[in-house]
Amino acid sequence: MRSAAEPVLTSRMAAPPLKRKLAKRKPLCGRKLGQRLVQTRWNSFVGSPSSRLAKMMLPRLGKHLWDTFVTHAKQHYWQAYRSVFTPPSLVLECSGTVDGTPCPHALRIDLGAPDAHRMSGLLHLDHERKVRETCRVWLENLPPLPRTWHDGSDREDLCHALFGVRDGVGPRCMWFRCSARRVRGEWLPYAAHTFCHSE
After folding, report:
1. How far apart are CA 135 and CA 38, in angstroms?
2. What is the 3-class SS of the chain, one letter each residue?
């Protein structure tokens, strides 16, 4: 006979939830890291409405011409752009300064290394023809009512200045260079004031 103090278990009484330890997500590495880096870079530079180029050119071109430009860039330059972030060696390295001086750190990032994600913040894909200057000339050459996004400019030369990771209408004009960068809100310590990338 059950005592009055003894609890009665019923099917409606739920068992206490099990506390499961959340597995810490491992950072990406290898080719997947390279693919993440290039997609992030592309979107921040041209691929999203809030990208660097969009802020400078979308108000002047309007949505239709801007969308046409982005489509052209994706069709003709994306593959080469992606390839520099995912080379067969899976190693990204600083090319030194614009004047040809070798990188003082000889910075090389093996995308397969455990610290690759953290170290990747130290490399910047640098335009030798500065973006702000390219866009200034682009804007100046546009007529009051442009019919195309490249109206008044040489289309191939303009795109090479913006996406020239390979020799094209001119020599390659974009290279990896070491640069101070934030990763998850933290400045990465790395020989301050000796970076190859400079504005």
Report:
1. 22
2. CCCCCCCCCCCCCCCCCCCCCCCCCCCCCHHHHHHHHHHHHHHHHHHCCCCHHHHHHHHHHHHHHHHHHHHHHHHHHHHHHHHHHCCCCCEEECCCCCCCCCCCCCCEEECCCCCHHHHHHHEEEEECCCHHHHHHHHHHHCCCCCCCCCCCCCHHHHHHHHHCCCCCCCCCCEEEEECCCEECCEECCCCCCCCCCCC
Q: Are 96 and 80 in contact (CB under 8 A)?
A: no
- Rounded to an integer, what distance in angstroms lies between the CA atom of residue 195 and that of residue 103? 8
Boundaries of every domain in the chain = 30-187
pLDDT score at 43:
96
Please check whether residue 176 is in contact with residue 95, taking contact to mean a CB–CB distance below 8 angstroms. Answer: yes
Q: How do residues 134-152 score in pLDDT, each as one tens digit?
A: 999 999 999 999 999 999 9
Identify the burial level of 181 via C-beta atoms within 10 angstroms of its C-beta, where 0-12 means exposed, 13-18 middle and 19 or more buried. Answer: middle
Provide the pLDDT confidence category of residue 120 given band limits of 50, 70 and 90. Answer: confident
The predicted model gives 81-98 an average pLDDT of 94
Cα 31 to chain centroid distance, Å, stands at: 15
Q: Are 94 and 196 in contact (CB under 8 A)?
A: yes
